[in-house]
């Protein structure tokens, strides 16, 4: 009384035995088996538990539309939940566990939910769990208490937390025609396009090409359909202009015929081959697309229709013919169309007993009648199944007389023996991709199906996808679609002949049998016909409301078997035709896609890394690296036992007392060249650059168009028409884009060329009282004395034989020089400078010391130029030229930006001699409750020069508060205390040291 | 989405950076008409339909392109260099002595 | 109409669930109302609800062009938070949070607001300080915020990559414990039912095709279901603001319509306790009660009114999610969809009288619309009823852009795709 492998038949390789486990039990199957077929062959029919009521569930389908038989695949600690057993090819060592059950699949406590019955109808959770309005469980507490248990009961499989070691890959592909689906229609479409010389990709989601030809009993071109399909595939494979993609699900239809597909490269293997990724994510640009995606058979909705042993008629046909499996030994059918009778004949041939064919219709065709007689068993026309019997498996069914005209049942319910019930409620074309690239699908009354919409992109359909359900029609359409996609018309040289019983696939308009008991529409989410009617009663009548209120079609199978029955029941409740109710729009993906595949090479490599030429040197010489955007920069070069603070204090102090060197290669560098370069710079900087002498540099400030500060940096005039602009590290890309836009779109008449040269130059800044001596000791080809190289001057020379450009400018406030060499010479020049610095006690310093010295000097960086501050806020109003307009000049004085109450840059000194924190707020009164913030601290350090903890801050009133006492308020880090507000220029405000 | 760069040919969306509404005209740099500046910086036509807009081929030739793209369907019906369009205008700015 | 409760559920279960009534009526439009609210999304419905509840104005119609809640209220990632930087924002979103906390009781509809917390991960000391600045601003504005260290974070989120070798190592995070998620559709339905119970007419499949005017003054609308007059016409159609306002002759606004994609995975047993965001790029993820991971990232980055996005953004979002949770490489994407955002020029919304006499405008919600639903409706109702803004929404004017009185949380200026 259970399914088994038939003695012969099927296309599995019976000579090859494959071993796998399910819930710890060892099983065997054959090469070519799916987990579903292999378990059925072993008599297993209980595959899983449903989402809400935890009802026992078997396998309903043989493909991607499976709602019930979901399992978790284990690879050690790595878990892959919710895989349909029908899509899982078995391999040696496959380890699978069932899910959504506790403690075991056979005995699940969650099944108690069924006792809730009508209490747990659609949307019940919206009406309760609100809890009391006062007391300890008021507000959201009671709900959150209940939710804890609801969440544990919900969900399906359990995901792991161990890193997935698999590799994923992305491929771009380009073709004239992409054919989706390789059933008879898809195969001939591919052939027709390929015959016309087009570049073709044929994608098939199953391992085997051929679709229904692999399991139909039909004959094509005088061959068994499967053999015909193999011949076609061999022919296609041999061509240079055809690429075959098996196990590839085309899941997304994006703009301009950009098709997304998932290839499951090694999921069917014990171990991937050399270089093979687990999944390959395809982005395919197709000139045109042939959609030959077939149709899904629909179940019928009746009480007990979810019991294991209930299976789609076409799935049973497939299990028998492709896998050599009998899904039962005493098989009954419940159908509303002629085409389903094929299953009776197939199963009979394979050795099952057909106990009854229950047909909702009074009239059937002669052909169907003939098949029924040949299959044996009772033919009950005008009858319906009103219940299934049995525990975790069908042991019998109950039938009653059924009136198709009004859905009424009459007469006594009769028991019939059956260990398997095949159902067929007609066919639904697989229009998901078309719906992503088309208008609204239209209901066809004759076919009782939603047909593909009018395209909004370049695709044609063929075969069952178009509602042409017979193989002969599919072949004719396939050829025509292929030709049309290839851009040629009417050269149909290939017209295969089909021999098949002529069975009308058009179903009678019956979707539901209304009898006592739970009748499931969405098997995975446990949405019943009564739930749909409840949604109607409560006014959730739009299909979108139906979906959202009942969760119909929102499970992992995305309603492939349930959408149409659900819509039909809603239409019936409303008393409107299905065409008026319509269907929801399908969204990508057509079937679930692994997240790893979509990330592809970016899995584990989310963003590129930017390293300066001296990166390895820093790491080898004890630098602690710090991520700054995409860059890695040295934070400190700590000595053994040093804290971060000790390290940067030492570095900064030594730099101010002797010398220090820092890698500044990350600064953005843009070559601004051309006869209008100076004019251009005048327009984009707030200050004047056309007056800058050749061989000199100037500090510049840029605003955004809206008058807010954008970036600062120095720009060097290397020649009359040749400038080198530097930007902050963080804003290099933004500034480049800003300038390019202005040049290309706004002022194309300016003759200026911009080139990003950030990566072409290595930069080292050498600072401190000994800096000039150190340079003098290693630079050749130029002097570096005050006359040759005055403040903001530029010279060219060589260091250790490598050409360098040196500019005397200072961020630290010390006598300082930026030494630029070609990136390839970066390490060489750096090491030469290090060597030259040794006699002078020069240190390397990192970002922490750099920050410390800039805070002491009161210079601004990204923490202050944060996209919200103006030049005035930053104390840079002296840089705003009044002699010329510049980007932002007309916007910077608007009332909101000129408001005297804005925050302005100041310095703060901790009066309690304790460290300050960036992001702490400043308040006027030292109150218990944090409130009335007047600003915040942007940057902090211990200042070795002042011997104090200091910081920069943006504070309302700015300068007016100099000398005033305020308080730091940092409740997040519990840091409170008095500060003095001072000028941001803490150290050497006159700049004597750098001019020195 | 595929953008047909006049220089590089048809390329994937991921190579391009959107630079916004192409209906805006930046006032003359010397303009002191505050309303004109405010409109340039903040006001958008935001058309539901064929939209005139600027894209940069940031991952390619870095040219700015002027597209007509339908914001309801994403269909692109014209692409040209933004620079060319501007040159064709009779009132295109020449280098202004006031700024040099 | 009957109250919802455990008792009513039980009573109805015993009678076969035969007696449930529609959650809201389906009335035909009347010739005129005191107030018309254009837009049957979250904000329009909450506006109608608070007009009735707080101001006693019940002769109100909400006009929805399609099915109720078909816009962004049903297309978001359901996050509710008030972790903002500027005092104006904090005050507004904190007001919203207080309304959220009692919303299910207020509406007699379980909107499933679950305060599971939102955690913003920081990956550099500078970012950590930036988050601290915001968290401190929240605390100074009366909100809740905490800083977590990597150990605390690792304990909360098993499976999160907190290793030092991560491309963007986690150095800490900002937690707002009161934040969380709510069931988005239930918010629309709950407000609709609540407004309906107070006499508001909710009219679906009624598209506004034009505005009736008397000189400058707006006096009503023309719709696919005929002319409807009203003393006050309020527009709350974020996503379609540009299109609808053009019907009133307002051709330009400080708004661009952009596309935001959202994603949900297959159902999983509980694995994420709350909402968590990644600071190495732009990614936010939580887990729904059904078990799906609900997540999203950046905008597609171009003007669009199409509710469909493109592939490059999909790939970017997945790579960022997996940078946080490498185990999720084997989790599967179930659905994706697109919503149309009103991206304003400073990233903050507009709730105001005008811009024409007789008209009121609520728009520019950027990413922030869902969490704002209660306060937006509450403030907008006040603005409509009193013909002046409440002090909470007073800063969110339409003229603030030209005047430079911006509320630019992200500091990106007039580049809407970056907000």
UniProtKB/TrEMBL annotation, chain A:
Location of the FAD/NAD(P)-binding domain: 176-441
Q: Give the UniProt keywords, A-Z.
A: Oxidoreductase
Taxonomically, which superkingdom? Answer: Bacteria
**Gene Ontology annotations for the cellular component aspect, listed alphabetically:** cytosol
Q: Which GO terms describe its molecular function?
A: sarcosine oxidase activity
One record GO biological process: tetrahydrofolate metabolic process
Q: Where is the Aminomethyltransferase C-terminal domain?
A: 904-988
Q: Which SUPFAM superfamilies match?
A: Aminomethyltransferase beta-barrel domain (SSF101790), FAD/NAD(P)-binding domain (SSF51905), Folate-binding domain (SSF103025)
Domain (GCVT N-terminal): give its ranges.
Answer: 614-884
Quick check: keyword Transmembrane helix in the entry?
no
In this chain the SoxA A3 domain maps to: 516-601
Q: Where are the transmembrane segments?
A: none
Per UniProt, what is one Pfam family of this protein?
GCV_T_C
Q: Which family does it belong to?
A: Belongs to the GcvT family.
Tell me the protein's name: Sarcosine oxidase subunit alpha family protein
Instruction: Provide the species name.
Output: Mesorhizobium alhagi CCNWXJ12-2
Automatic annotation (TrEMBL), chain B:
Region annotation Disordered: where it falls in the sequence: 79-100
> Which residues fall in a compositionally biased region of kind Basic residues?
88-100
Q: Which GO terms describe its molecular function?
A: sarcosine oxidase activity
Q: Name one GO biological process term.
A: tetrahydrofolate metabolic process
Q: InterPro entries from the xrefs?
A: SoxD, SoxD_sf
Recorded superkingdom: Bacteria
Protein name, please? Answer: Sarcosine oxidase subunit delta family protein
Automatic annotation (TrEMBL), chain C:
Its UniProt entry gives the catalysed reaction(s) as: sarcosine + (6S)-5,6,7,8-tetrahydrofolate + O2 = (6R)-5,10-methylene-5,6,7,8-tetrahydrofolate + glycine + H2O2; sarcosine + O2 + H2O = formaldehyde + glycine + H2O2
**Domain Rhodanese positions:** 35-79
| Known cofactor(s) | FMN; FAD
Which SUPFAM superfamilies is this protein grouped with? FAD-linked reductases, C-terminal domain, FAD/NAD(P)-binding domain
Name the top EC class. Answer: oxidoreductase
EC number(s) on record? 1.5.3.24
**Subcellular localization(s) per the UniProt record:** Cytoplasm
Sorted keywords for this record are: Cytoplasm, FAD, Flavoprotein, FMN, Nucleotide-binding, Oxidoreductase
Q: Does the keyword Hydrolase apply?
A: no
**What are the recorded GO MF terms, alphabetically?**
nucleotide binding; sarcosine oxidase activity
Q: Name one GO cellular component term.
A: cytoplasm
Which family, according to UniProt?
A: Belongs to the SoxB family.
PANTHER family the record matches: FAD-DEPENDENT OXIDOREDUCTASE DOMAIN-CONTAINING PROTEIN 1, SARCOSINE DEHYDROGENASE-RELATED
Q: What is this protein called?
A: Sarcosine oxidase subunit beta
Species of provenance = Mesorhizobium alhagi CCNWXJ12-2
């Amino acid at each position: 009384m259970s399914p088994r492998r038939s003695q012969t038949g099927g296309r599995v390789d019976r000579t090859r035995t494959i071993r796998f486990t399910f819930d710890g039990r060892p099983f065997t199957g054959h090469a070519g088996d799916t987990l579903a077929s292999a378990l059925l062959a072993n008599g297993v029919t209980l595959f899983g538990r449903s989402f809400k009521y935890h009802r026992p569930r078997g396998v309903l389908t043989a493909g991607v539309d499976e709602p019930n038989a979901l399992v978790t695949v284990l690879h050690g600690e790595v878990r892959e939940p919710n895989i349909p057993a029908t899509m899982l090819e078995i391999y040696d060592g496959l380890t699978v566990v069932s899910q959504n059950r506790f403690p075991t699949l056979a005995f699940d406590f969650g099944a108690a939910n069924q006792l809730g019955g009508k209490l747990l109808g659609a949307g019940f959770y919206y009406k309760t769990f609100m809890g009391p309005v006062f007391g300890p469980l008021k507000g959201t507490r009671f709900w959150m208490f209940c939710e804890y248990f609801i969440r544990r009961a919900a969900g399906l499989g359990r995901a792991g937390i161990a890193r997935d070691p698999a590799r994923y890959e992305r491929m771009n592909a380009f073709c004239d025609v992409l054919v989706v689906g390789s059933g008879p229609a898809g195969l001939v479409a591919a052939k027709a396009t390929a015959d016309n010389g087009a570049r073709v990709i044929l994608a098939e989601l199953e391992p085997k090409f051929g679709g229904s030809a692999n399991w139909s009993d039909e004959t094509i071109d005088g061959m068994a359909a499967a053999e015909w399909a193999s011949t076609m595939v061999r022919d296609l494979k041999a061509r240079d202009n055809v690429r075959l993609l098996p196990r590839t699900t085309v899941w997304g239809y994006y703009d301009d015929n950009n098709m997304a597909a998932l290839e499951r490269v090694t999921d069917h293997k014990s171990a991937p081959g050399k270089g093979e990724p687990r999944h390959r994510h395809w982005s395919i640009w197709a000139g045109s697309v042939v959609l030959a995606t077939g149709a899904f058979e629909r179940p019928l909705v009746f009480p007990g229709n979810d019991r294991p042993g209930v299976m789609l008629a076409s799935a049973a046909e497939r299990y028998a013919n492709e896998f050599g499996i009998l899904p039962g030994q005493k098989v009954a059918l419940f159908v509303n169309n002629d085409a389903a009778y094929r299953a009776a004949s197939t199963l009979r041939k394979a050795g099952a007993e057909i106990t009854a064919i229950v047909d909702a219709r009074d009239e059937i065709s002669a052909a169907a009648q003939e098949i029924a007689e040949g299959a044996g068993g009772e033919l009950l026309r005008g009858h319906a199944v009103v219940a299934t019997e049995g525990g975790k498996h069908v042991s019998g069914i109950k039938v009653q007389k059924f009136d198709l005209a009004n859905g009424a049942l009459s007469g006594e319910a009769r028991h019939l023996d059956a260990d398997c019930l095949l159902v067929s409620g007609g066919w639904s074309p697989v229009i998901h991709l078309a719906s992503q690239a088309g208008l609204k699908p239209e209901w066809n009354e004759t076919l009782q199906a939603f047909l593909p919409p009018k395209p909004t992109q370049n695709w044609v359909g063929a075969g069952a996808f178009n509602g042409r359900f017979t193989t002969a029609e599919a072949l004719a359409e396939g050829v025509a679609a292929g030709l049309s996609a290839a851009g040629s018309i009417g050269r149909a040289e290939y017209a295969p002949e089909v021999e098949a019983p002529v069975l009308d696939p058009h179903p009678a308009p019956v979707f539901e049998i209304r009898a006592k008991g739970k009748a499931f529409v969405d098997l995975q989410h446990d949405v019943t016909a009564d739930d749909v009617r409840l949604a109607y009663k409560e006014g959730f009548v739009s299909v979108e409301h139906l979906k959202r209120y009942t969760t119909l079609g929102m499970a992992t199978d995305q309603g492939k078997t349930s959408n149409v029955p659900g819509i039909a029941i809603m239409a019936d409740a409303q008393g409107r035709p299905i065409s008026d109710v319509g269907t929801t729009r399908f969204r990508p993906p057509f079937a679930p896609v692994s997240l790893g595949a979509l990330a592809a090479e970016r899995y584990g490599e989310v963003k590129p890394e930017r390293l300066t030429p001296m990166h390895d040197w820093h790491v080898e010489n004890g630098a602690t690296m710090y991520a700054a955007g995409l860059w890695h920069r040295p934070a400190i070069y700590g000595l053994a036992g040093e804290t971060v603070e000790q390290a940067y204090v030492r570095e900064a102090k030594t730099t101010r007392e002797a010398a220090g060197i820092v890698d500044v290669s990350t600064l953005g560098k843009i070559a601004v060249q051309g006869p209008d370069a100076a004019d251009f710079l005048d327009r984009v900087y707030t200050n004047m650059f056309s007056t800058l002498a050749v061989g000199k540099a100037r500090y510049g400030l840029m605003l955004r168009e809206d008058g807010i500060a954008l970036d600062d940096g120095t720009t060097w005039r290397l020649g009359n028409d040749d400038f080198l602009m530097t930007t902050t590290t963080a804003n290099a890309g933004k500034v480049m884009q800003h300038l390019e836009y202005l040049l290309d779109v706004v002022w194309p008449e300016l003759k200026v060329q911009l080139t990003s040269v950030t990566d072409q130059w290595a930069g080292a800044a050498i600072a401190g009282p000994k800096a000039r001596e150190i340079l003098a000791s290693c630079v050749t080809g130029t002097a570096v004395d005050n006359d040759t190289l005055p403040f903001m001057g530029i010279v060219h020379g060589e260091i250790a034989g490598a050409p360098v450009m040196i500019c005397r400018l200072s961020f630290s406030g010390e006598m300082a020089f930026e030494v630029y060499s070609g990136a390839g010479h970066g390490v060489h020049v750096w090491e030469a400078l290090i060597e030259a610095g040794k006699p002078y006690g020069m240190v390397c310093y990192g970002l922490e010391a750099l920050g410390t010295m800039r805070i002491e000097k009161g210079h601004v960086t990204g923490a202050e130029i944060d996209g919200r501050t103006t030049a005035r806020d930053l104390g840079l109003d002296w840089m705003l030229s009044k002699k010329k307009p510049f980007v932002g000049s007309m916007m910077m004085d608007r009332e909101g930006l000129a408001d005297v109450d804005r925050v302005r840059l100041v310095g703060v000194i901790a009066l309690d001699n304790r460290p300050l924190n960036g992001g702490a707020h400043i308040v006027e009164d030292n109150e218990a409750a944090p409130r009335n913030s007047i600003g915040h601290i942007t940057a902090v350090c211990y200042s070795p020069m002042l011997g104090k903890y200091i910081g920069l801050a943006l504070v309302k009133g700015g300068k007016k508060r100099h000398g005033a006492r305020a308080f730091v308020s940092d409740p997040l880090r519990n840091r409170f205390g008095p500060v003095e507000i001072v000028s941001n220029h803490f150290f050497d405000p006159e700049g004597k040291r750098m001019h020195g | 989405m595929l953008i047909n760069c006049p220089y590089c040919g048809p390329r994937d969306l991921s190579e391009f950076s959107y630079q916004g509404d192409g209906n805006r005209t930046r006032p003359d740099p010397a303009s002191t008409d505050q309303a004109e500046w405010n409109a340039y910086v903040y006001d958008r036509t935001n058309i539901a339909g064929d939209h005139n807009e600027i894209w940069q081929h940031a991952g390619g030739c870095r040219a700015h392109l002027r597209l007509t793209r339908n914001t309801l369907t994403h269909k692109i019906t014209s692409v040209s260099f933004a620079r060319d369009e501007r040159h064709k205008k009779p009132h295109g700015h020449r280098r202004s002595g006031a700024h040099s | 109409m009957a109250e919802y409760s455990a008792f009513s559920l039980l009573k109805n279960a015993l009678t076969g669930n035969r007696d449930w009534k529609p959650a809201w009526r389906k009335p035909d439009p009347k010739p005129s109302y005191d107030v018309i609210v254009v837009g049957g999304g979250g904000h329009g419905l909450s506006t109608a609800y608070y007009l009735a509840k707080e101001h006693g104005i019940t002769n109100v119609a909400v006009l929805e062009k399609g099915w109720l809640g078909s816009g962004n209220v049903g297309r978001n990632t359901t996050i509710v938070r008030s972790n903002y930087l500027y005092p104006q924002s904090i005050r507004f979103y904190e007001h919203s949070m207080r309304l959220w906390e009692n919303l299910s009781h207020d509406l007699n509809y379980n909107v499933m607001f679950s305060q599971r917390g939102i955690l913003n991960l920081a990956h550099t000391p500078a970012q950590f300080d930036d988050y601290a600045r915001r968290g401190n601003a929240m605390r100074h504005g009366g909100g809740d915020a905490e800083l977590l260290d990597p150990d605390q974070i690792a304990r909360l989120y098993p499976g999160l990559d907190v290793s030092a070798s991560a491309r963007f190592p986690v150095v800490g995070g900002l937690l707002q414990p009161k934040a969380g998620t709510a069931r988005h559709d239930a918010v629309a339905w709950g407000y609709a039912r609540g407004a309906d119970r107070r006499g508001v007419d909710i009219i679906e499949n009624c598209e506004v095709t034009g505005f009736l005017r008397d000189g400058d003054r707006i006096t009503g609308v023309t719709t696919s279901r005929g002319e409807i007059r009203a003393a006050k016409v309020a527009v709350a159609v974020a996503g379609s603001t540009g299109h609808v306002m053009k019907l009133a002759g307002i051709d330009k606004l400080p708004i661009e319509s952009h596309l935001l994609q959202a994603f949900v995975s297959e159902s999983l047993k509980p694995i994420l306790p709350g909402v968590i965001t990644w600071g190495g790029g732009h990614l936010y993820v939580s887990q729904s009660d059904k078990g799906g991971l609900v997540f999203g990232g950046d905008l597609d980055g171009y003007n669009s009114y199409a509710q469909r996005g493109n592939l490059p953004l999909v790939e970017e979002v997945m790579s960022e999610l997996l940078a946080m949770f490498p185990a999720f490489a084997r989790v599967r994407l179930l659905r994706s969809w697109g919503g149309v955002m009103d991206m304003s020029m400073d990233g903050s919304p507009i709730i105001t009288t005008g811009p024409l006499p007789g008209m009121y405008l609520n728009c520019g919600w950027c990413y922030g619309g869902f969490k704002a639903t209660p306060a937006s409706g509450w403030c907008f109702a006040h603005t409509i009823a009193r013909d002046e803004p409440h002090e909470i929404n007073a800063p969110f004017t339409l003229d603030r852009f030209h005047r430079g009185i911006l509320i630019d949380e992200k500091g990106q200026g007039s580049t809407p795709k970056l907000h």
